[in-house]
Amino acid sequence: MPNLADLLEQYRANPQILLYRQYTDNAWRDYFARDVAALAARWQQAFRNAGYEPGDRVALCLKNGADWVAIDQAAMGLGLVVVPLYADDNPENLAWCLNDSGARLLVLENPRLLDALTRALPSLPAIVCLHGDAPAPAISVSRWLPENGGSFEALELDENTLATLVYTSGTTGRPKGVMLSHRNILSNVAAALEVVSLHPGDVLISVLPLSHMFERTCGYYVPLKAGVPVAYTRSINQLAEDLAFLKPTVMVAVPRVFQRFLARVEQALAASPLKRALFSLTVALGWRKFEGRAGKVEQSLFRLLQPRVAGPVLNRLGGRLRLAVVGGAPLELRVARSFIGLGLSMLQGYGLTEASPVVAGNREHDNDPVSVGAPLPGVAVRVNEAGELLVRGPSVMLGYWHSPQATAAVLDAEGWLNTGDLAEIRAGKIIIKGRTKDILVLSNGEKVSPQDAEMALLDDPLFEQVMLVGEGRAYLVLLAVTQESDERTLIKHAKARLKSFSRWVRVRRVIALREPWTLAEGLLTTTLKVKRNAVYDKYRERIESVYRNGIRTV
């Protein structure tokens, strides 16, 4: 019977294989299969010593690394249920998830959150801290772990045994615990490996937190199954340095990572019209080559320009990157076109936590950046009368933890999952149109899906975070986190970015905000999406005031 811990167990005969590289104690350290298995075995013995039984919940609030993997594999092997939490989530949200899951153990990176968690949830479970002094009620990992754990164990489990509770809040409401089984996730891993090829010699760089199901499946389980080592970046702020040192060949990331990278490149080119023109020409030629429309002269010119123009740009990504797998949010075509035009294979996929999470993805031999690709093998999709995408397959969740009503609202008796995404299926490929709940209906009845417009706005480095409002109003107002204070300048920039959209998608006023929206403040979800209702409520008075004062001419 399948067990996610079999992914580590498969290395018993080859313990010398490199699995992970991470920055520890001021140096990069390699972790081989034998190291991870030995650490996981010690955690398993600690779980046994504590009397934990199959089905008990273990919560992890850790940064990415070999410890995260070892504890996860240890728990899975014994039939425990892992509850991943975001290390930068606010204490109240963490406390709610701990209480709702009934976790018997919480593993923390360090004691930094202890005081806040104790105030938010007086009846905390047992707590183990990996680093730093661990004041009561926590204990240090050195006291928790036995010196020797014996052999790593992967029990035989029923395929529908609960493996993990992943809390997802969307952009409104309390988090819901998504119940995923061993079969759910393993089927997704197998299907993903039929779509994306990982090769001997590949190195994958991990950027997103492992509490994000996209990273957990595609950046942890998939490479572990394929035997590809993973390098953990120190932080998003040190990503550029880490890329240069680690020289990965595969990167799994959300579009924002590549948006920011492209914006920095364009800023650097802005001072030189010649360099800017050569960059644009290289991208245009590379894109024509990708589409199969480049003639012999164009192909020759691209071969001349590619190492001179694209090479230095791609060297900033380490110089060896051959594949970027992008998901978690929509990828703007302009960004995809730029990187593909430079010669990087960029594949957009689509998924949601409730589907373990990958539903569809583009293939290297059949890549259409306008779409999120075709469904994975074994996954069925259709669009209902309301235009909403429905999904069915072995990776679809068991349901929501202790929430039968919420489960029934999205999962029918035939196993079809309502995704909440508006979509179109064209030639077997899925094109995402927006979120069913995010549609803004203007006072004239025109409907605006803000998602694409907000993505376009974020392409401008002037805007750090954005949200459009206008439900029931005559026009749209933009809330923008920015260092620019002049509204006329902001409106001009917004108009320039939105000129290709319909006439209803026009920003008439901008509310400039200096303070960024954070997870700790409750303005972002754990996957860093804007919580529209929370942001609106915080700035409600300013929004109302702007609408009262009317349109500003530019």
Architecture overview:
This protein has 554 residues and is α/β, with parallel strands linked by helices. Among the domains are: 1-16 and 35-157, Rossmann fold (3-Layer(aba) Sandwich), CATH 3.40.50; 440-549, 2-Layer Sandwich (GMP Synthetase, Chain A, domain 3). 36% of the residues lie in helices and 22% in strands. The protein has 18 helices and 26 strands. The strands form six sheets. The chain has a nine-stranded mixed beta sheet, sandwiched between helices. A five-stranded parallel beta sheet has the order 4-3-5-6-7. A four-stranded antiparallel beta sheet has the order 17-18-20-21. β1 and β2 (27-32) form a beta hairpin. The chain is globular, with a radius of gyration of 24 Å.
Topology:
Elements: H1 6-9, E1 18-24, E2 27-32, H2 33-49, E3 57-61, H3 66-77, E4 81-84, H4 91-101, E5 105-108, H5 114-120, E6 126-129, E7 138-140, H6 141-144, E8 162-168, E9 176-181, H7 182-195, E10 204-206, H8 213-226, E11 230-232, H9 239-246, E12 250-253, H10 255-269, H11 273-291, H12 296-315, E13 323-326, H13 333-342, E14 345-351, E15 358-361, E16 374-375, E17 380-383, E18 388-392, E19 399-400, H14 404-410, E20 417-426, E21 429-435, E22 440-441, E23 447-448, H15 450-458, E24 465-469, E25 476-481, H16 487-497, E26 507-513, H17 532-538, H18 540-549
Parallel strand pairs: 1-11, 3-4, 3-5, 5-6, 6-7, 10-11, 10-12, 12-13, 13-14, 25-26
Antiparallel strand pairs: 1-2, 8-9, 9-19, 14-15, 15-16, 17-18, 18-20, 20-21, 22-23, 24-25
Helix pairs in contact: 2-3, 7-8, 11-12, 11-13
